[in-house]
Amino acid sequence: METAGTDFDGRQFKNPEEMWQEQVGDTHKKCQWYRDGVSYWEGVEATVDGVLGGYGRVNDADIKASEQFLKTLLSELFVDGGRNRHLVALDCGSGIGRVTQNLLIRYFNEVDLLEPVSHFLDAAHDSLVHENPTASDVHKATNFFCAPLQEFMPDAGRYDVIWIQWCIGHLPDDDFVSFFKRAKIGLKPGGYFVLKENTAKSGFVLDKEDRSITRSDLYLKELFGQCGLHLYKSKDQRGFPKELFGVKMYALTTDVPKVVSKSGRKVQANRPGVIK
Ligand code: SAH
């Protein structure tokens, strides 16, 4: 891809290939990239403010917009909005379980969490299992997997929705693509991914401190194409402080989705097609 990028010191890269070659060009460098990424988060306190990089105050706006997006998807893609279905979600790079606790647990009967940093996952377990008076057999956090995305292999056909928020930037392009290809196996027929992520205005921005990159919308779409995913819908997050990156939500399906019509019949969506 011929799109230039930068790091936070203003250093320019001709294209992503040049940057990836330098950062993760051999096995040793790639191990170091992932080790440094996890170490960064191991030094962050297990609070909402911690996982949101000091911007705990955006939590409410984030959850509100995500809920709107999810509600639309559930009603468009599942008969009865999924009400007659045992709904299961996976929260990827879940941190302390902020998204599960504030959103997913209310809509899904079961939620699994996947997170490589153990003190975050422990905090998620404490709040979702030990300290949660509203936990019930019909809405519960079931599995807590302590693993990174690049190593995760889901059980086949377990999930209706795989939610990936603010963590995919830790994966270089090759692992991004292989993660989605493996994760697809974890989706039920008709299931989909929701990716919520920062977006760069163009190209990419490398963060050498936490070992992640912020990709542009175009860059992400190019990768979705390589994963064989269809972009069903996307939406911009609104109401965040101006100094932050723009944030987008993407709903991604493995096939051209059948949209549920008002009469409850499934009809073929006429847009959009495969991203090339
Ligand atoms: N999604 C959560 C947490 C965001 S903070 C939320 O929105 O509240 C970013 C998270 O990504 C941290 O919990 C961090 O530990 C996790 N992370 C870092 N590298 C990762 C990797 N390789 N795979 C999965 N998660 C990773």
TrEMBL record:
InterPro entries: MeTrfase_NTM1, SAM-dependent_MTases_sf. The keyword S-adenosyl-L-methionine applies. It is an enzyme of class 2 (transferase). Its EC number is 2.1.1.244. One of its GO terms (molecular function) is N-terminal protein N-methyltransferase activity. The keyword Methyltransferase applies. It catalyses: N-terminal L-seryl-L-prolyl-L-lysyl-[protein] + 3 S-adenosyl-L-methionine = N-terminal N,N,N-trimethyl-L-seryl-L-prolyl-L-lysyl-[protein] + 3 S-adenosyl-L-homocysteine + 3 H(+); N-terminal L-prolyl-L-prolyl-L-lysyl-[protein] + 2 S-adenosyl-L-methionine = N-terminal N,N-dimethyl-L-prolyl-L-prolyl-L-lysyl-[protein] + 2 S-adenosyl-L-homocysteine + 2 H(+); N-terminal L-alanyl-L-prolyl-L-lysyl-[protein] + 3 S-adenosyl-L-methionine = N-terminal N,N,N-trimethyl-L-alanyl-L-prolyl-L-lysyl-[protein] + 3 S-adenosyl-L-homocysteine + 3 H(+). Keywords: Methyltransferase, S-adenosyl-L-methionine, Transferase. It holds the Pfam family Methyltransf_PK. Signal peptide: none annotated. GO terms for biological process: methylation. GO terms for cellular component: cytoplasm. S-adenosyl-L-methionine binds at residues 93, 98, 149-150, 165. SUPFAM superfamilies: S-adenosyl-L-methionine-dependent methyltransferases. Alpha-N-methyltransferase that methylates the N-terminus of target proteins containing the N-terminal motif [Ala/Pro/Ser]-Pro-Lys when the initiator Met is cleaved. Specifically catalyzes mono-, di- or tri-methylation of exposed alpha-amino group of Ala or Ser residue in the [Ala/Ser]-Pro-Lys motif and mono- or di-methylation of Pro in the Pro-Pro-Lys motif. Belongs to the methyltransferase superfamily. NTM1 family. PANTHER family: AD-003 - RELATED (PTHR12753), ALPHA N-TERMINAL PROTEIN METHYLTRANSFERASE 1 (PTHR12753:SF0). This is Alpha N-terminal protein methyltransferase 1.
